[in-house]
Design goal:
10 helices; mainly alpha; 233 residues
C-alpha cells in the first residue's frame, strides 16, 4: 500500500471517525496527565521527594489498568460490537473530562489522581476494540497502512498532549482554558465515536466474560501458544 493511499483512508467513513476518536482520546489522556504532573511539580510547596512519589503514583495509576483489565477488555471486544464499545467508552471519557474540570481548577491532587486512573481504565478497555476493529473496516491490502496511520496518529497525539498540557498548566490563568479544552476534545471525540460503522463479533458468543484476570490470562496464554505466529509476535 503506497503512502498516498494510506492518507486517502482519512477521507473514508470506514476509517476517519475511528481514527479521530482514538487520536483525540490519546491526546486528552496525555493532556490531562501532563497537566497533573506540572501542577504537582510547580503548584505547591511540596518537597522533591513528595513530588517524585506523586508522579510515580500518577504514572502507575494510568498504566496499571492495562495490566489488570486488558484480558477482560479483550473478551468484551470479542463478544460485543466493537463500534458500540467505542461509543460507550467515548461517552465515559466525556464524563471523566467533566470530572477533571473541578479537579484542575481547585488543584485537588487526590481527585485528579482518581480521574487519571479513570482515564487509564477507559483506555485499557478501549485498546482491544481499537486494534481489532481495523480488519473489519479495511480491505486486506489496507490493514498494514491503516495500522501505520493509527500508530503515527497516536504518537503525534501523545506529543501534542504532552506539550500543550505542560505549557497551559504551568500558568494558573490558563487552567480554565485547559479544563475547557479537555471537555471540548472529549465532546468532539464522542461525536466521532458515534460515527464509527458497526463492527459485530465474528461469531455468536454469550455476552458474558470472566472477571478473574488471572484465570483469563492463563487461558489466553494457552490459546496464543496454539498459534505459533501469534506467539512469536
Amino acid at each position: 500500500m503506497n503512502q498516498k493511499s494510506q492518507f486517502e483512508l482519512l477521507k473514508s467513513r470506514r476509517f476517519k471517525p475511528y481514527f479521530m476518536a482514538q487520536f483525540l482520546g490519546a491526546f486528552n489522556d496525555n493532556l490531562f496527565k501532563n497537566a497533573l504532573l506540572i501542577i504537582v511539580a510547580y503548584g505547591g510547596t511540596r518537597s522533591l521527594q513528595e513530588i517524585s512519589v506523586i508522579n510515580n503514583i500518577a504514572s502507575g495509576l494510568f498504566i496499571l489498568p492495562f495490566f489488570i483489565f486488558a484480558m477482560v477488555a479483550g473478551q468484551m471486544a470479542d463478544a460485543l460490537d466493537k463500534a458500540t464499545i467505542i461509543r460507550r467508552l467515548k461517552f465515559t471519557e466525556l464524563l471523566l473530562a467533566l470530572c477533571a474540570v473541578p479537579a484542575l481548577l481547585t488543584h485537588n491532587i487526590e481527585w485528579m489522581l482518581i480521574v487519571l486512573a479513570g482515564f487509564g481504565l477507559q483506555s485499557a478497555f478501549f485498546a482491544p476494540a481499537k486494534y481489532s476493529i481495523l480488519p473489519q473496516h479495511l480491505h486486506p491490502s489496507e490493514v498494514v497502512g491503516g495500522n501505520a496511520m493509527v500508530q503515527m496518529g497516536t504518537f503525534v497525539a501523545i506529543l501534542a498532549g504532552t506539550l500543550i498540557g505542560g505549557l497551559m498548566s504551568a500558568q494558573v490563568d490558563l487552567l480554565p482554558y485547559l479544563a475547557g479544552l479537555i471537555v471540548l476534545v472529549a465532546v468532539v471525540g464522542a461525536f466521532y465515536g458515534r460515527k464509527v460503522p458497526p463492527a459485530p463479533p465474528f461469531r455468536e458468543r454469550p455476552a458474558k466474560w470472566n472477571w478473574n484476570v488471572v484465570a483469563v490470562a492463563i487461558k489466553s496464554t494457552r490459546d496464543i501458544r496454539r498459534f505459533r505466529g501469534v506467539l512469536l509476535a
